[in-house]
Amino acid sequence: MSKRVLIVEDEKNIVDILTFNLSREGYETLEAYDGAAGLQLALEQNPDLILLDLMLPKMNGFDVCRNLRKENRSTPVIMLTAREEETDKVLGLELGADDYITKPFSMRELLARVKANIRRNEMVLTAGAAAQPGGQRIEHGRIAIDTDLMVAYKDDRPLELTQREYELLKFLASQPGKVFSREALMEHVWNYEGYVGDVRAVDVAIRRLREKVEDDPASPQFVVTRRGLGYYFNA
């Protein structure tokens, strides 16, 4: 069955270009030209991925993403923005967007990110459907991860992690002490093969993960920075 991509964008020429290229790659597309219509389609049609413009009539991309996550929808969201401000990009990630891409963008890069995010989401859903109680566990003192149930625990209490935060913690904890660069994490956790580009998404995800895992996020004990090199799990 073809995967469906919802395009929420108010510039018709961009919608036409995206629709043409996604269709050529075998995707079905849904289109919305304002934020309110986009949110309604997202909730009613449950697409496999959403390409979400930031500046939209009726409801901006931030609010669309915020409301989508309030409904506990885990649909991957890639934000499209012509704005270069770092705060905009970080806010989008904070609100639950999986990634962002700045206009003008390379269609090849956008298609690669669409494919990677859909594939990652499929892997998570498949693992969840096959989960069995009492399966594989990664244990490091106060932190434990049940990789079959996809639940992480601290002091035997489940942590409320997003899919991305869980995957990031599991990846680091599965190789304690090994330092991974931001680019390596983009490749292994975000599934962007040979990634070269903006890696702020990693820093935001690490910061949010620390807020949920660490006793004092400002002085992390589990997810640690190796200055100039990257991040590692301290067992």
Description:
The chain is of the alpha/beta class. It has eight helices and eleven strands. The chain has helices at residues 12-24, 35-45, 61-70, 86-94, 107-129, 163-173, 182-188, 200-213; strands spanning 4-8, 28-32, 49-53, 77-81, 99-102, 137-140, 143-146, 151-154, 157-158, 223-226, 230-233. The strands form three sheets. It has a five-stranded parallel sheet with strand order 2-1-3-4-5, with helices on both faces. Strands 6-7-8-9 form a four-stranded antiparallel sheet, covered by helices on one side. It has a two-stranded antiparallel ribbon with strand order 10-11. Strand 4 (77-81), helix 4 (86-94) and strand 5 form a beta-alpha-beta unit. Helix 2 (35-45) packs parallel to helix 3 (61-70) and helix 6 (163-173) crosses helix 8. The longest helix has 23 residues, at 107-129. It is elongated and about 55 Å long. It starts with a strand and ends with a strand. 31% of the residues are buried. Mean pLDDT is 85; it is low at 128-132.
Low-confidence stretches: 128-132
> In angstroms, what is the radius of gyration?
18 Å
Give the SSE string.
EHEHEHEHEHEEEEHHHEE
Proportion of helical residues: 40-55%
What is the count of helical runs?
A: 8
Structural class: alpha/beta
> How many strands in all?
11
Strand content: 15-25%
Largest sheet: 5 strands, parallel
What separation lies between the terminal Cα atoms? 43 Å
Task: Briefly characterize the structure.
The chain is an alpha/beta fold and 235 residues long.
